[in-house]
Every structure is written in structure tokens, then in C-alpha cells.
UniProtKB/TrEMBL annotation:
<protein>
    <submittedName>
        <fullName>SDR family oxidoreductase</fullName>
    </submittedName>
</protein>
<comment type="similarity">
    <text>Belongs to the short-chain dehydrogenases/reductases (SDR) family.</text>
</comment>
<dbReference type="InterPro" id="IPR057326">
    <property type="entry name" value="KR_dom"/>
</dbReference>
<dbReference type="InterPro" id="IPR036291">
    <property type="entry name" value="NAD(P)-bd_dom_sf"/>
</dbReference>
<keyword id="KW-0560">Oxidoreductase</keyword>
<dbReference type="Pfam" id="PF00106">
    <property type="entry name" value="adh_short"/>
</dbReference>
<dbReference type="InterPro" id="IPR020904">
    <property type="entry name" value="Sc_DH/Rdtase_CS"/>
</dbReference>
<feature type="domain" description="Ketoreductase">
    <location>
        <begin position="13"/>
        <end position="194"/>
    </location>
</feature>
<dbReference type="InterPro" id="IPR002347">
    <property type="entry name" value="SDR_fam"/>
</dbReference>
Amino acid sequence: MDREPTKSALTGQSALVTGGSRGLGLLLAERLAARGNRVTIAARDPEELERAASWVARHTGTTPTTRVCDVREEEAVGALVAQTAEEQGGLDAVFSVAGIIQVAPVAALDPESFRAAMDTMFHGNVHTSLAALPHLRRSPYGGRLILVGSVGGLLAVPHLVPYSCAKAAVAALAEGLRTELAGSAVSVTAAHPGLIRTGSHRQAQFGGDRAREFAWFAALSGAPLVSMDARRAAERIVRAAERRRVRLVLTPAARAAGLAHGVAPALTTRASGLAARLLPAPGPGDDLAAGHRLAEPRLGRWQDTLRRLGSRLNDRAAHRFNQ
């Protein structure tokens, strides 16, 4: 157990984390439990949830409540929120994290890929927000709603276009809710992480030349100079929620990219186009496949070296954070 007895503006409150069974959501649940919150984690897979609850208990001494829920289903989310509020004596903070990652050139995708991204990340956030707000308004502490977007929602990332589209919609949702709730006791925080070492390459879906798409994504998302330690990222997001920050962009690279796109969008779009030329061309792959089902690709010597160096930390994170 490595619980940190942290005095917090959230201590003793009821917190719900969607997408809380692995990766960033799991670490947010851990950070909240370490602060003495009554934590409920929700996800689609009951076995993952059971492992996640045991993991949080080992690290904090507190076992979170688990609930199976698919955030794409409006009624299921409504039932989750209502049951959590009833069992925990109210609902004070909601962290909406659930998401999917599809890595492929647009030429290898179909409209269903875009619908899947929007259903999970945008509609999932809509369902969670609308169901939670009535309960957050009744919180005696002043409710907190935290929507997890991405730097990919601040500027489009090649070979991650469905993801970027959905995360851009999440950014607009968070901003709109924040403005409409101004003057109320409820705060809305938008968290936009850059690359975080959560081991997400294991659960991401890959299309086109799937093996090579997996190789570059695993390497880049684990590279020390451009990615961030996942537990540190979770701590930063919880602190932002405590302070009721409007917006948090994590990693220097993500902040620089977001700022550059805001100042010179045409220039950054051209730069992204140049970067896209370095990525794999559409390959023979058919359906999207999860990273953990893909065989290691055979690349050139320097490419293999780069992949191994970049993905080593991410592979460790996958093992540690229930991926």
C-alpha cells in the first residue's frame, strides 16, 4: 500500500469515475481514494472492474465500489448515476474518462469508425454530464464535473482523425457547460492530456498496415521526452478539479502544439501534413484490430531499435495499469 494521506478539497466526498477500470481512469480512482473519497468506478467489463478494485485497494487501503456500465447507453448511465448517488449519500464529483483510440489512415476507415468514436467519447460525455448535473447541483460542497478530452481535440492528429473529432466535441461540450453553469456552485473542468504512458497501445485499435501503425503509436506514446508519467498526469487532473480550474493541458509538447494551432492554424495543419507523410501508407489490413492481438512487425534495424526504446515504458505501464 502506498496511500498518501493528502488533505484535499475533495476529502470525504462521493466521486464517480467512468472508464475507471484501467489506464488513466484507474489512476484517477486511486488518487481520489488516497484522498479519502468514496469512489465508484464504472466500465463495461466486469472482470476488468474486479481487477481494478483490487488494484486500488492494494495501493490505498480503500476498495472502490464497481458498476458495469456502457456510457454509450443513455438509460444505463442514468441508472449508474442515480444508484451511485443513492448508495453514497449524494454525488459530489464526476470524472468522465471512458474512451477508445483508433489508429489508422482515413483511407482505411469507414463511417462506422467515426460513429464508434463519437458514441463512446462525445455521447458518453453527454450522457454522463446530463445525468450527473442534477445531483452535482445538490452537492453541499459544490459539485465538480471533469471531462477528459485530449490535445487531439485541440488540433487534428493524422491517423487519429475519428479520435480527434470526438475529443474536439468533448472540448466544446466542456466549454459550453462551463459557460452555462457560470455563477452556480457547480464547476466544469476540461482536462486535455497529451501523450501519457498508460499502456493504451494495448487496447487501441489499428487499421490499414496494422503492424506498422501499432509500432509507431506504441513507440511515440511511450517516448520519455514527449510523453508523461500516467500517475503524475492523474494527480495533476485531480488537483485541477480541486481548484476548479477551467482547463488543463498536460505535457509541454501538448501545450506548445495547442498554442501554435491557436495562433497559426494554417501553419500547424501544413506541418501535420508533412508528419503524415512519414506515417505508414494504407496497407492490406481489413477490420480494426486491438493492439494486444497484433504480432510484432518486422521493420528495419533502426526502426526496430526506435520502437523498442520508445515502447518499453509503455509496455511496463500496460502491465501496471490493468491494460
